[in-house]
């Protein structure tokens, strides 16, 4: 209930106050669990993506966000769960896999933190392992411009969200290299960033 109310509120905010372009929503699976893997530019990214996807997204978020009890309670009610960065957090991995196997959608920012430069950063570990063990597809997501909202001098800020073609885990990925699936996802995001950034 809280998720849907906030989703509608943010959708209204984005429609009224912003200009934005969305492509590739036809690439979102229509049934079953899947992972949304997006680049991360600002705090606007999670609610923005949530307004564009019909499914409830269960975001994996850094553990530090759960340090404030009231805020932690709110985001837990929204389906957000913590992950310890720069480590193999087995609890977070297990939670993600369980959600995916029950048909839920999990949102992951592979970089692990917001990019200060706007450029795509190196991914942290975990994405390929989760997708492979849960046997679900990954939809790459390229977010453009949210780091410039209210900073570009425009009265009506502009941003873009592009959903790439779903990428499936396979024996090919695991046999070639440890992070080949993750690399393919990041390459897909980079291609979209290059294409739409001109």
How would you describe the overall organization of this protein?
39% of the residues lie in helices and 18% in strands. By secondary structure, the protein is α/β, with parallel strands linked by helices. The chain has a single domain (2-197), classed as Glycerol-3-phosphate (1)-acyltransferase, CATH 3.40.1130.10. A 7-stranded mixed beta sheet has the order 1-7-6-2-5-3-4, with helices on both faces. Strand 3 (57-62), helix 3 (69-77) and strand 4 (81-83) form a beta-alpha-beta unit. Helix 4 runs parallel beside helix 5 (127-134). The N and C termini lie far apart (40 Å). The model has no long low-confidence stretch (mean pLDDT 90).
Structure, briefly:
This protein is of the alpha/beta class and 198 residues long.
From the structure above, extract its key features.
7 helices; Glycerol-3-phosphate (1)-acyltransferase; alpha/beta; single chain; seven-stranded mixed β-sheet; 198 residues
Work out the number of β strands: 7
Q: How would you sum up the major sheet? A: 7 strands, mixed
The CATH architecture can be named as 3-Layer(aba) Sandwich
CATH superfamily: Glycerol-3-phosphate (1)-acyltransferase
Helical segment count:
7
pLDDT average, as an integer? 90
Rg, rounded, reads 16 Å
At the first level of CATH, what is the class? Alpha Beta
Task: Report the β-strand fraction as a percent range.
Answer: 15-25%
* Rough outline: globular
Number of domains: 1
CATH topology: Glycerol-3-phosphate (1)-acyltransferase
> What class, by secondary structure content?
alpha/beta
